[in-house]
Amino acid sequence: MFKFLFGASKRPPDDGKETSCILSVVGESFENDDGTSRQEIIAQLDEGDPIELRPEPKNPYDPNAIAVFSRRGQIGYIGRNDTDLVHMAMKAGRYRGADVDFIGESMVGLEGVRIAVWIASA
Predict the structure, then answer these.
(1) Based on the structure, what is the number of domains in the chain?
(2) For residues 6 and 8, what is the distance between their CA atoms, to the nearest angstrom?
(3) What is the pLDDT along the chain (122 residues), one digit of tens a residue?
(4) What distance in Å separates the CA atoms of residue 22 and residue 98, rounded to the nearest whole number?
(5) What CATH number should be reported for the domain holding residue 20?
(6) Residue 107: CA count within 13 A, CB half-sphere
(7) DSSP 74-94
(8) Dihedral over alpha carbons 30, 56, 116, 121 (to 10 degrees)
(9) What CA dihedral angle connects 90, 94, 96 and 101, to 10 degrees?
(10) Residue 49 sits in which domain range?
(11) Strand-pair partners of 52
(12) How far apart are alpha carbons 2 and 97 in whole angstroms?
């Protein structure tokens, strides 16, 4: 269970031609390959911070995986159930970016993140 820490994304739609999908980030409790703590990176995030989504077609666990990066490093992945939506938007040229929507703290003290993914209307 998460408690609300930050409000919804403040990025305005581009003249009504964009919409946001709010997606959960998974894998936030793991360390990155370079030894950095995803939890420490998340602790430095603020609402509205830009997010970079990087497809990982060579990911050995899931060729549809999409890694989620802040300016400071990887914070996790988009959940498996949401990757098709993002891949379709990217392939169609409709993906417009992503940012931190809110950060929640679990009952065991771990922080989780939801991001706003901006997609141009068809």
Answers:
(1) 1
(2) 7
(3) 333 333 444 555 556 667 889 999 999 999 999 999 999 999 999 999 999 999 999 999 999 999 999 999 999 999 999 999 999 999 999 999 999 999 988 767 789 999 999 999 87
(4) 10
(5) 3.30.70.2330
(6) 1
(7) EEEEE-GGGHHHHHHHHHTT-
(8) -170
(9) -80
(10) 2-120
(11) 69
(12) 25
- 99: β partners: 50, 116
3-state secondary structure of 39: helix
**Contact at 8 Å (CB) between 112 and 103?**
yes
Structure-token pair, residue 29: 């409790």
Tokens representing residue 25 in the block? 């980030």
Whole-prediction pTM: 0.85
Q: At CA 31, angle to CA 28 and CA 34, rounded to 5?
A: 135
